[in-house]
């Protein structure tokens, strides 16, 4: 650092004022004040740990439909406990740094190029000195309470894994059943074979998504509707009947070249509908798994290992497409227990 600093107009140099005289903090001169501050900071970390445990308890015990002052009681409690824990940890760390860690002013020389070996060694020395001045070794109460709070921080993350949804083996059934109409997933209108031209692909879903009870309320609504819709989504395609090569037992699963398959890729569950009319191939946009719809949804490329589940179709008395049954094969991404679950499903059918 030079002794003189140039003024903005570079006409006169300004003398370097230097550093102000160092002022001691109360914790630097009074051991009782330092101990009191240490206990306060450790109390913050300890309370943060209790709040994170409270987060886990609230998640398990509070009913999701319970309210508090017009708000969701669960959301309010989870936000208050986790937010309070993070706030206390942050405030405690700031107080530790301001009142107990080293408080000596330093000057760092600027340089336009890479530091010399001596400077690098000096930096490492300063880092080690900083670690020493942080007093983390001399203040085990703060250190241990902070480590405990940081360890407890992982508990809410583990608890929240429950919000990722049910385990895969719970996805074996959908709302499709015998006689249920296939409807357009945008308009909700039933589909007739005459509505589909050769080469067409329609995104569809079961008619139950639009059915209402005697009070005019939807049979499915809210979260149940979204879950059912995501698992039961299908694609309906039409090709020339002579291009279809059904496997044994699937000869009557289509109607004059009209076939219906699950819209959920069997790799990791992405929605698919990128259709090549000439080859009858459908492509998953996530990882490029490719399925041959003319050949029972067989995988011909990509990481998927299972064919697309096919939904058997028929026509009702009014000429609309209907499902013959639910999917005979499990819908959704692959997982280790799939083979076992599929065998159980095959035995039931």
TrEMBL record:
Which cofactors are named for this entry? [2Fe-2S] cluster
Metal-binding as UniProt keyword: yes
Question: Which residue intervals make up region (Disordered)?
Answer: 1-36
Q: Quote the subcellular location field of this record.
A: Cell membrane
Short name of one Pfam family for this protein? Rieske
Which InterPro entries does the record associate with it? QcrA_N (IPR045603), Rieske_2Fe-2S (IPR017941), Rieske_2Fe-2S_sf (IPR036922), Rieske_Fe-S_prot (IPR014349), Rieske_Fe-S_prot_C (IPR005805)
**What SUPFAM superfamilies is this protein classified in?**
ISP domain
Can you tell me where the transmembrane regions are?
A: 41-62, 68-94, 141-162
Q: Which CDD domains match?
A: Rieske
- In what way does this protein cross or attach to the membrane? Multi-pass membrane protein
Taking the first listed entry, what is the main subcellular location of this protein, grouped into a coarse class? membrane
The Basic and acidic residues compositionally biased stretches are 21-36
UniProt domain Rieske: residue ranges: 253-322
Record keywords, A-Z: 2Fe-2S, Cell membrane, Disulfide bond, Electron transport, Iron, Iron-sulfur, Membrane, Metal-binding, Oxidoreductase, Respiratory chain, Transmembrane, Transmembrane helix, Transport
Question: What is this protein for, i.e. what is its function?
Answer: Iron-sulfur subunit of the cytochrome bc1 complex, an essential component of the respiratory electron transport chain required for ATP synthesis. The bc1 complex catalyzes the oxidation of menaquinol and the reduction of cytochrome c in the respiratory chain. The bc1 complex operates through a Q-cycle mechanism that couples electron transfer to generation of the proton gradient that drives ATP synthesis.
- Family assignment from sequence similarity: Belongs to the Rieske iron-sulfur protein family.
What protein name does the entry list?
Answer: Cytochrome bc1 complex Rieske iron-sulfur subunit
- State the organism named in the record: Aeromicrobium panaciterrae
